[in-house]
Amino acid sequence: MVRLITHNLLACHAKGCTTNNFPLKLTDVKLALREADFNPDFLRGFLPRVEWDALIQASREIGDTSLPVERPEMLDDDLLRQLHHVLLEIHIDEGSMTCPNCGHVYPISNGIPNMLLAEHEIW
């Protein structure tokens, strides 16, 4: 399932697309909310790997404005719960991700991103 935690790790890998290929722009999304167990230790451990600007951009693209624009230095319980919700409970069931560099579109169907490329698009 595509969640923003997953989206934050994806970049375009089409042939010749090596710069400005992250983050993929989310469009025409259909969202679902699915509860997940709150694990603050997981969030604290994963947060250093999160590209904050990309997370904020993606969350805004799907209509969520709950996270601060600047990466917070302190993680209180409220912020951890907001992160948990944005990263783990918002699911993208349908839509697409588009490369900002080459414009390649990766469709999302039934919560699964199709990251496969045609033979002529492969390195």
Automatic annotation (TrEMBL):
GO terms for molecular function: protein heterodimerization activity. One of its GO terms (biological process) is tRNA methylation. InterPro entries: Trm112, Trm112-like. Transmembrane segments: none annotated. Pfam families: Trm112p. Gene3D superfamilies: 2.20.25.10. Belongs to the TRM112 family. Interacts with TRM9. PANTHER family: MULTIFUNCTIONAL METHYLTRANSFERASE SUBUNIT TRM112-LIKE PROTEIN, UPF0315 PROTEIN-RELATED. This is Trm112p-domain-containing protein. It comes from Russula ochroleuca.
